[in-house]
Each structure stands twice: as structure tokens, then as C-alpha cells.
């Protein structure tokens, strides 16, 4: 068991190192950030002074080692634009993104999982086809198009919801619905497939033959055994809360991490982009780790295999 977790920890560290290294190299070889920050009209002496001030005049390898040493002490450097610690800037935006992401995920889970169960129990009927049509619509429709469509209808035509900003639950409804639609459709399809597979198992027929009530068969026998593929999708989508919110936050002017990343990339703010990419990578890695832990709780055979 210890060896199992040591291997997973080593893979996690290796993944994060690769993300940090790849982002560092790409940002510094895809253009001059100093010119992007100061403008093409900046004087040569101003450009050179800025490079020296931020250590951008040093060799790439020296810059990389300095950045890794900073990260080892829990520091992500200062923003080239705001001259403030990157971690402070990110933490200011995290609550808004978490609020949006968790609200969207709650809506998706409350809609997608029950819809998938109902579709599986009514396989081939009208309600099954209707739910699957909704699921296809959900994960096929681009977020930016759905967001603009909702703004057009609910803000401009019907004038019942604010089109942008934050502050009240009414500001949250459209961004959360836009972000959660894709996840709801995905959960509905995977839940239906997993439930259909389990409903055909011999132990389900045996439970029915023993007279176990229908609701008890579904809740205590079918759903727990169908939960592993559902947990996989839940965990992976949960890890995409920040990455998936980039487009939605931009469309609705939501002051979160996703919108901050778009701004940082457009301004070539190297330290801020690196910090944000690392936060997104850590979120994905932790989500996968939680999924693995949940596997062991749901299926004792996985724990036995790990041992």
C-alpha cells in the first residue's frame, strides 16, 4: 500500500514539474514580454533597464533555477504588471471562481445524475430519448455560444437577470447554468451507461427474485456498483473548475481566476501566467488523487489490489 502511494506521489510531483518547466520555456521563447509590457515605442534604455530589474537579462537556465528555488520556498514571484506578489493576486480571485464552479457543479450533479438514472430505468422510452437529446445538446453546445444566447434572452429580451458582474445570486445564475450544462450532459450519459450495465447483472435479478423492493435495489445495489465510472467523470470535471471557467468568466465579466488568466496572457505577465497555470495543474492533480481514494472506498477489491 505504501509503495502504491509513493508511486502516485512521484507521478504527481513529476507532472507538476513538467507543467512548470513547459510553461516557463514556452512563455520565454514565444516573444519578448518586455516589449509587450512597455510597448513598441519604449526607448531601448528603458527596455534594458526593465530586463535587468526583473532578471530577464540573465540566461534562460539561470532564470529557471531561480524560479524553481523561489517555488521551493512557497513564492511565485511578483507580477510584472502590478508589482505585487503573484500568490496574493491569485488568492483574491479564487473565491469568485470557487463560487461559480461549485454552483455550476452542484447544478450539474443535481440534474445530470438523476436524469441518467431515470433514462436507464426507462430505456427506449420517450423520456429516455428526451434526456439523451438534452445530454447531447449539453456537451455539444460551446460555452461561449450558450452564454451569449442566455445574455441575449434573459438580459436583453426578457430583462430578468443581470448580464455581467457579481454581487448577488442573480448574477450567479446564468454563468453557473452555462458552465454546468456541459457537465450535466456528460454526467447524464455516463450515469445512464453505467446503470444499464449494472441492471443486467445477475445479482440484480437475484435481488428482484428475493423480493427486495425496487427503490432499495436501485439505491443499495445498482447505484453503488455503477458509481465508479460516475466518480471518474465527477472527479475529472471537478478538476476542471478553474480551467473550464475561463470562457464563461470572460463572457460574463466574472472576476475570477479564469478571466485573470486571459488578462495575464494578453499582457505577457510571465510570473502571473506561470502561477495560474500551476494552480490549474494542482487542481487537476488533486482531483485525480481524490478519485483514486474514492475508488478504494467504493470497491474493496481496488484496495486489495493496491495492497
From TrEMBL:
Source domain of life: Bacteria
Topology class, membrane: Multi-pass membrane protein
Subcellular location: Cell membrane
Keywords: Cell membrane, Membrane, Transmembrane, Transmembrane helix, Transport
Principal subcellular localization: membrane
InterPro entries given in the database record: BPD_transp_1_N, MetI-like, MetI-like_sf
Gene3D superfamilies: MetI-like
TM ranges: 102-121, 133-157, 169-188, 226-252, 272-298
Domain spans labelled ABC transmembrane type-1: 94-295
Record-stated family: Belongs to the binding-protein-dependent transport system permease family.
Tagged with keyword Cell membrane: yes
Source organism per UniProt: Aureimonas populi
UniProt protein name: ABC transporter permease
